[in-house]
Amino acid sequence: MEEAKHDCQSLLDWAINQDLTLWGLKVPKKDRCLVPKKVGRCRGSFPRWYYNAASQRCEKFLFGGCRGNQNNYLTEEECITVCNGTGTPKTKLLL
């Protein structure tokens, strides 16, 4: 069961990275820039880049090698290309 869940998540992450529609869901590339950084559960130490929506900058982090998310880029240039102009998501004021 866990392996099937992992395969499904991998397929979804791939589709998002390709800016595709999967199971009727379309997630634009820019939306992946707003997902928080995820180091993953494995113990690797791979230099990667993610878009920090709060600072509106691409920042370096160490990826564990598995169970990450789509806000994970091999180079700073790739991160900037995909996420430039994304900005900080608007927050709702609760009264």
From TrEMBL:
It comes from the Eukaryota. Residues 33-83 form the BPTI/Kunitz inhibitor domain. SUPFAM superfamilies: BPTI-like. One of its GO terms (molecular function) is serine-type endopeptidase inhibitor activity. This is BPTI/Kunitz inhibitor domain-containing protein. GO terms for cellular component: plasma membrane. Keywords: Disulfide bond. InterPro entries: Kunitz_BPTI, Kunitz_BPTI_sf, Prtase_inh_Kunz-CS. GO terms for biological process: epidermis development; epithelium development; extracellular matrix organization. It comes from Oryzias melastigma (Marine medaka). PANTHER family: KUNITZ-TYPE PROTEASE INHIBITOR 1.
